[in-house]
Specification:
There is one protein chain. This protein is α+β, with helices and mostly antiparallel strands. It has one domain: Nuclear Transport Factor 2, Chain: A. The protein is built from four helices and seven strands. Strands 1, 2, 3, 4, 5, 6 and 7 form a seven-stranded mixed sheet that branches. The longest helix is centred in the N-terminal third of the chain and has 20 residues. The chain is globular. About 15% of the residues have low confidence.
Length: about 150
């Protein structure tokens, strides 16, 4: 292949790269429904104590920062979810906001109230979840929760 053809091919590849092409965002309402379904499936897997199903919902490099500032990887977070399920009674979502960053990245932020079975206490949190779509499947790449001051 001549140098001129190689240069032309490289130029086309750079121009056609995902970073250089603005891909359309698919229907935001459809994405929101997919993420709601994923969060529902996650709750079901927690109730069923199904670590394998939970593992499939998180990326390999998943990280979580809890309300104390502790950083956990995927395995540590799954363990915490399975143990915490017996402690946290209700984690209803009071509000949320979806931010789409291209067709394969979604950031969900929200506010929830957590009720602790053992003490009959509850507290409010704000949270963030970062989702990536890999091979057509949404998975959680990162999450973080912050406890809100009471009052």
């Amino acid at each position: 292949m001549s140098a001129r053809r190689l240069l032309a091919l490289l130029f086309v590849l750079v121009i056609a790269s995902p970073a250089a092409v603005a891909l359309p965002i698919t229907d935001p309402q459809a994405i929101e429904k997919e993420l709601v379904a994923l969060r529902s499936a996650m709750a079901d897997a927690m109730k069923a104590k199904d670590a394998a199903k939970l593992r499939a919902m998180f990326t390999d490099g998943f990280t979580h920062i809890d309300d104390t500032g502790k950083l956990a990887d995927r395995e540590a977070h799954i363990t915490a979810l399975l143990i915490r399920d017996s402690v946290i009674e209700d984690a209803g979502v009071a509000e949320w906001r979806l931010n789409l960053n291209g067709p394969n990245i979604a950031i969900l932020t929200g506010r929830s109230t957590l009720a602790v079975k053992a003490s009959s206490a509850s507290y409010a949190v704000r949270w963030t979840q970062v989702f990536v779509r890999e091979y057509g499947v949404w998975r959680i790449a990162a999450s973080q929760v912050t406890r809100l001051p009471s009052g």
